[in-house]
Amino acid sequence: MFGTKQSYRPEIDGLRAIAILAVIAFHMDLGLDGGYVGVDIFFVISGFLITNQIDENLIRGTFSLSQFYQRRIKRLLPAAFVMMAVTCFCSYFLLIPSDYREFGQSLVAQGGFGANFYFFRESSYFSHEGIPQPLLHCWSLAVEEQFYFLFPVLYVVLFRLHRALVGITLATLAGASLLLSIYYTTYSPMGAFFLLPTRAWELLVGVGLALFDRRFAMPMTTSTRNGLAFLGGAAILTSILSFGPTTSFPGYLAGLPCLGSALLILAGAGQNSIAGRILRFYPLVFIGQISYSLYLWHWPVVEFSKVYKLAFGGEASALLLAVLIFGLGVLSWKYLEQPIRRGNWSSKKVFFSAAIASLMLILLGLSIHFMNGMRNRLTPLANQYADGVKDRSPDHEMTLENVKKGELVPMGVQTPSSKARLFLWGDSHAKAIHLVLDRVCLEFGIAGEAALRNASAPLSDHLHIRDPIRRAIEEDYNQAVIDYIREQQFEIVVVAARWNYYLEHSSNDSGQIQSVIFSMMRELITIVPRVIFVKQVPEPGFDVPRYLAYQSWHARGGAGLGLKRSLHDNRAQEELFRTARSIDGIEVLDPSRYLMNQDRAFVQLESHGKSIYMDDNHLSVHGALLLTPLFSDEVGLK
User: Fold this and answer.
1) Is the dihedral of CA 300, 301, 304, 310 positive or negative?
2) How many helices (H) and strands (E) does the chain have?
3) CA gap 182, 189 in Å, rounded
4) Contact 441/422 with Cβ under 8 angstroms?
């Protein structure tokens, strides 16, 4: 067994090294798409270590909540506070006002140990819409901090009531948390990812492992430990190599890295085991020792490198970023973590200093928020370009229930006697053109409706979605839309989507997706007189309003910028719509020619000092209005 006293175990630092290296590789896009499971490994380790610490001191009669919180504060907060202060300083010079304002909000949130709540409401871990979020990684710190605040109190109460209650209650809580995680991973993925109730079971795996060790563990042979190490390493390696941003996570799949971590901790206790020898390899141990500082600094470095690339056109090499991350990590560990942890501070000084530092960060974040991101840092033209990120159509988001109840988005003339003639169906790209279609319909006295849903291809079969539950949800929604179109007998159906994305990101080949689209076209022309498919607008591939703002802000030009049309041509989409034109009754509209310069050699990025795009692929309202002739003239709504 591991032993009943809290002693340093270098192999746990070795496991920490694996976790942090996986996370950094994932965030640096080095090919480890499942590297984010490193956070889950950290959760298990944290639960294991603090339970050993609490249980041992309770048995000895020396446990103090005050001392526990004091150690956690000294361990976690000083380095984090310095990272946030430095990040705030850098953000002042690098972020446009709307992004700096949101940074201020996240600073307030993490200053109050609630970054996970903020990012649950405002963001996606895997795709945060091009918005630089230098404190996004603080979500996991907030989860641990919340757990550290609640867990010791619960543990002490249960321990003093009856020791048998500890294991029973915590096992029940872990099971409930796992069930919540499985459920919300499907129905509220961001809630499942960011919030403590759906993540607590991962920390409780470590708690359970510690209790098993201290209460029931039996001596194991070296061969048994090697077998456990093989299983644990295989579980972690499988999750790192096979998971990705589209994996339904955490849910039950998070059990793979968590179980793997538990098995490696269990197996690594034997000095002669393979796991013990590997994880005690000094370079790994050292990386594990500085893993907290590496985690703190790696994400701001990665985020600011993306901003630098967009602003100045230079791209830092992976080696340079790695050197910078590890340099900052070592400095933070040596000059912040170590001295403060070893310092002989009174409890009063620790709590007071933490409270003052937290309050200062909150006040700083509030000032950035209420000063609207400090717009005076930028030139007037740069601010005008930067405003493009907010120049978007209303975010109407339909659900299956909305469609079944006939609660769709109205367009054009809305009177009791008006009957909808035109129907718009699509994803966020359809949302981007909704406003211009609404205005055109209103101008010509036409009533219409729209079914709009983010990341939902207007198809009967969602081959691009791997998760069977989510795929079924989207297909049920789209079938309801088709049924609604059939019932209402519209004269015109306009279908718009990010076709390139669905053709390129299918788990099958693009030919199968094309077959599904053609099948949809043929079904629609049997129930609607006119079916119009709108090609995807040119996709720059970088955040246009931020790019234009940076160019103007740093005196690098901006006006009249555009990209060669050849950079936007997509063979899959062109092949799709070339074939579609041969289907009787299908009309295809190409919006790109309304977004080009006069000789049609370039796709414009801006017009009259405003960005045509609101991000890297969606039109802004200003850009969408350039398509007015496309719908008023070519569709023939006059």
Assistant:
1) negative
2) 27, 10
3) 10
4) yes
Q: How many CB atoms lie within 10 A of CB 511?
A: 12
Coil, helix or strand at residue 533: strand
Which residues lie across from 564 on neighbouring strands? 602
Rounded Cα distance between 453 and 457, Å, is 8
User: Is residue 71 classed exposed, middle or buried when 0-12, 13-18 and 19+ CB atoms within 10 A define those classes?
Assistant: middle
Phi, psi of 425 (to 5 degrees): -135, 130
Q: Which pLDDT tens digit goes with each residue over 480-517?
A: 999 999 999 999 999 999 998 888 876 556 678 888 88
Q: Which two tokens stand for residue 116?
A: 């996970």
- Determine if the pTM surpasses 0.85: yes
The answer to whether residues 309 and 554 touch, using CB atoms and an 8 Å cutoff, is no
Residue position matching structure tokens 């006069």: 598
Output the CA–CA distances (angstroms, integers) from residue 514 to 8, 91, 143, 172, 522, in the order listed. 59, 44, 43, 48, 12
CA dihedral (404, 408, 413, 414) in degrees, to 10, reads: 60
Task: Measure the CA–CA gap between 538 and 564, rounded to whole angstroms.
Answer: 10
As a residue count, the chain comes to 638
Q: Which of 82-86, 361-365, 423-427, 506-510 has the lowest mean pLDDT?
A: 506-510
Whole-angstrom distance between the N-terminal and C-terminal Cα of the chain? 82
